[in-house]
Amino acid sequence: MRVLGIDPGLTRCGVGVVEGVPGRPGRMIGYYVVRSEPGEDIALRLLNLDRSLAELIAEHKPDAVAVERVFAQHNVRTVMGTAQASGVAVLAGARAGLPVETYTPSEVKAAVTGSGTADKAQVTSMVTRLLQLDAPPKPADAADALALAICHIWRGGTRAKIQAAALAAARRSPR
Amino acid sequence: MRVLGIDPGLTRCGVGVVEGVPGRPGRMIGYYVVRSEPGEDIALRLLNLDRSLAELIAEHKPDAVAVERVFAQHNVRTVMGTAQASGVAVLAGARAGLPVETYTPSEVKAAVTGSGTADKAQVTSMVTRLLQLDAPPKPADAADALALAICHIWRGGTRAKIQAAALAAARRSPR
Questions:
Q1: Residue A22 φ/ψ, nearest 5 degrees
Q2: Interchain CB contact of B36 with A (< 8 Å)
Q3: Among A54, A154, B17, B61, which residue's beta carbon has the most beta carbons within 10 A?
Q4: How far apart are CA A20 and CA A142, in angstroms?
Q5: How large a percentage of chain B has pLDDT more than 90?
Q6: Domain range for residue A72?
Q7: Where does Mg(2+) 1 bind (chains A, B) (predicted)?
Q8: Contact (Cβ atoms closer than 8 angstroms) between residue A18 and residue A2
């Protein structure tokens, strides 16, 4: 299965595409960072993110989208923008008719490093090793997005299958 | 000018449409509440919200969209969902090519009641009086959405005009 992982953010939104099956290393298809300027209007920033994600989904045709869950205990000054970006990220997957799964940072860290409290350097290091990359993906947002995709593949996407059926039904029903 | 106000929320998202000019009472065109079930999948909830807002914008053809700004100090259990919904709300306006403005709860309260610390009952009471409604709009989310629209009209939308030009330019530029 091919999974597009999204580490949501307004200033930097990491996107990573990985193909693989549960229990195998997996292959990186590509990674990207969608950027916008902190001083720019919020509507333009979200519109830019929405378009970029729609283009990447159209280009890579993933089977599922995995998005990092945002928590209120993060940096209060930026968390609202991150949460808005995550809403747009989840919506981008849903609008493309794809199953969307969210994972906590601990779930992602545990999936790739074995520890839910691993630091960013450990996550980047493991992503580089697991995907047999020549160099660590930069910035860290891209490594996190690849880790999200790996996490989703390894967890097998059982919930994703149920949700895909619900989404397909929702898209069929006229509103 | 016709303004569509949005009080973002996942479980209940208030939408209010008002037509008017600065300094005059204004006329209510309609109000709505977009609902989704707390137990439902987040992707389906945001997809439902996105569709409903796109439909209401297409139906009412507002000149601008006004969205309430979300703060981290709100209820931590629900604030992330509210912020995600606000991202989808801002995006809905931007995707329709409309200027989108955000206002803090205090700005909205001050605009309709004269006090930034007015309570919900006061806001509902003033909205009912200003729009000469036979009965108070219910639930409070709908009254808040109408108050947002009034707030935007009364503030004259100077920033909105600048932003409209930027949005139009962004939509013209191929990506």
A1: -55, 135
A2: no
A3: B17
A4: 18
A5: 77
A6: 2-172
A7: 7, 141
A8: yes
> What pLDDT is attached to residue B94?
97
Q: How many domains does chain B have?
A: 1
Kindly state the tokens that stand for B174: 């191929």
For B78-133, the pLDDT digits (tens) are: 788 999 999 999 999 999 999 999 999 999 999 999 999 999 999 999 999 999 99
Q: Which residues lie across from B35 on neighbouring strands?
A: B12
Alpha carbons B21 and B114: distance in angstroms, whole number = 18
Closest listed residue to residue A105, CA positions, set A136, A71, A128, A129:
A71
Of A96, A81, A89, A111, nearest to A32 (Cα)? Answer: A89
pLDDT at B153 over 90: yes
Tell me, what CATH number does A69's domain have?
A: 3.30.420.10
Pull the structure tokens for residue B164: 């409209």
Picking from A70, A93, A175, the nearest residue to B43 by CB comes out as: A93
Binary contact (B43, A163; C-beta < 8 A): yes
Do the Cβ atoms of A70 and A82 come closer than 8 Å?
Answer: yes
Q: What is the pLDDT of residues A75-124, one digit of tens each?
A: 666 788 999 999 999 999 999 999 999 999 999 999 999 999 999 999 99
Chain A residues in contact with B90 by the CB 8 A cut-off are: 42-43, 46, 84
Q: Is B18 exposed, middle or buried (0-12, 13-18, 19+ CB in 10 A)?
A: buried
Using DSSP, state whether B19 is helix, strand or coil: strand
Residue whose pair of structure tokens reads 């729609």 in the numeric block: A54
